[in-house]
Amino acid sequence: MSDRMNSSRSARLEPTRWLALLATVVLISGCGGHPKNVLTPVADTVPTSSRVTMLVATTRGRSPDAGEMFTGERARAPAFVDMTVSIPAERKVGDVAWPKKLPSNPATDFATLNAEPLTKDAAKSWLNATVRKSPDRSVLVFIHGFNNRFENSVYRFAQIVHDSGVKSAPILVTWPSRGSLLAYGYDRESTNYTRNTLEALFQYLAADPEVKEVSILAHSMGNWLALEGLRQMAIRNDGLPAKFKNVMLAAPDVDVDVFRSQIEDMGEHRPRFTLFVSADDRALAFSRRIWGDVPRLGSINPELPPYRQEMETNKITVIDLTKVKAGDGLHHSKFAESPQVVQLIGARISDGQALTDSRMGLGDHLIAGTTGIAAAAGSTAGLILAAPVAVIDPHTRDHYGHHVNNLTGLKTGANQTCGMNEAAGGNSPCHTPQQ
Questions:
Q1: How many CA atoms lie within 13 A of 423 on its CB side?
Q2: In terms of C-beta distances under 8 Å and separation of at least 24 residues, what long-range contacts does 86-91 make, across chains too?
Q3: Is the CB of residue 324 less than 8 Å from the CB of residue 338?
């Protein structure tokens, strides 16, 4: 009788917990804000500022407002734009310096210097000319996530390109997101709407002899689009081209069971996959509730079965960012907002070597950027970052004990395991608050 009463009480409380989580996400994401329609080009008044020029490919509908350029509605055919964004010198790495008022001031703000619509042929010419300037003839394709207006995706990608230091030709793929937390279903269907366009881009990059290497970076719901585009291409071509070297999945809002099937459909000869996860990602916690409480790929605990074995078997490098403190209260954009992580991504792309090829493993690089803070704060930030990588990366594993010994008084133990277990959906009796 007592068990039935407890079960009934839990069932009544579940909607309340779900609504509370939704309210938390809305309140956190709604804090602050910036002017809309910031993309009207301004004069290049600060010649010493940095500039990022990118090719934009979008399935969004055009806006009558020059400052918005594209809406969150769907277009019948893709459009292309040559865009240049200036980035002020005084700015924290990982931040997008949104203007506080319009017009944007290039001395203090991200500002649009050029926004030129291109035909498909002109876009191909832009790509060929830009790829020739790349040291390794490479391309970086970025696919943004849920709840992104057009300007959000443009400025975020400009920040990533600049802060990572990549030399690849940058291509932004932006799909029709309405930029609202209440439009989750519409946004998800918009990724499906964009699959064929993305695959067409991938097919073009594969066939273009000027392009020697392709890297893909996707965030949040954009991972679903990226994985589906790769899956379609692999099925159609009986495999993926060798020039597709890297696929980086940041906070993927993807069902873990579906991800297994997508990877299988791509075949044995796949790009090198890197997965960025964080157990404290509130946006993915909300998404998990929507999708029937099935774990989202971006918030798994890679140390627990079956994930650990699956990642090893599929040669997927996993980077756990749970203890990285960056970004807003949603903890959903750490890959771009943490200086160490975004610079590591750039090094990965620019160096052209696998994450485990260097004598200094990925975990060591992350520790070098975090353990100074960890030792001062008495936390285990650097060790949490390295631990999942040490499972796969023998060079990090070799150095891991050395890092532990150098952190005076720092110990690993049950508390870490309990926190990770709970984050993966387990019922750990030693749960401690994430915040």
A1: 29
A2: 86/44, 86/46, 86/49, 86/50, 86/51, 86/110, 86/111, 86/112, 86/113, 87/49, 87/50, 87/51, 87/52, 87/158, 87/159, 87/162, 88/46, 88/49, 89/48, 89/49, 89/50
A3: yes
Which residues neighbour 433 within 8 Å (Cβ) at sequence distance 6 or greater? Answer: none
Q: Which two tokens stand for residue 328?
A: 């807003």
Q: What is the pLDDT of residues 258-288, one digit of tens each?
A: 999 999 999 989 999 999 888 776 677 676 6
For 220, the token pair is: 């949040």
What gap in Å lies between CA 189 and CA 67, rounded to an integer? Answer: 26
Average the pLDDT over each of 9-18, 96-105, 213-222, 363-372 and give the range with the smallest value: 363-372
Q: And the tokens for 372?
A: 């100074």
User: Which amino acid is present at 138?
Assistant: S
Residue identified by tokens 């940095």 is 50
294 DSSP 8-state letter: P
Local structure of 126: helix, strand or coil: helix
What's the whole-model pTM score? 0.74
Extract the tokens encoding 357.
């090829």
> Would you say 45 and 72 are in contact if contact means Cβ atoms under 8 Å apart?
no
- 3-class DSSP state of 273: strand
Both tokens of 86, joined, read 């200036």
191 with 72: CB under 8 angstroms? no
Contact by Cβ (8 Å): 339, 347: no
pLDDT tens by residue, 76-98:
999 999 999 999 999 988 899 99
Cα end-to-end span (Å), the chain: 36
- The predicted-structure confidence for 33-78, as pLDDT tens digits, reads as follows 688 899 999 999 998 899 999 999 999 999 999 999 999 999 999 9
* Identity of residue 300: I
Q: Beta partners for 112? A: 85
Q: Residues near 387 by Cβ (< 8 Å), separated by ≥ 6?
A: 303, 320, 363, 400, 412
Q: How far apart, in whole angstroms, are the C-alpha atoms of residue 328 and residue 277?
A: 16
- Tokens linked to 308: 């650990």
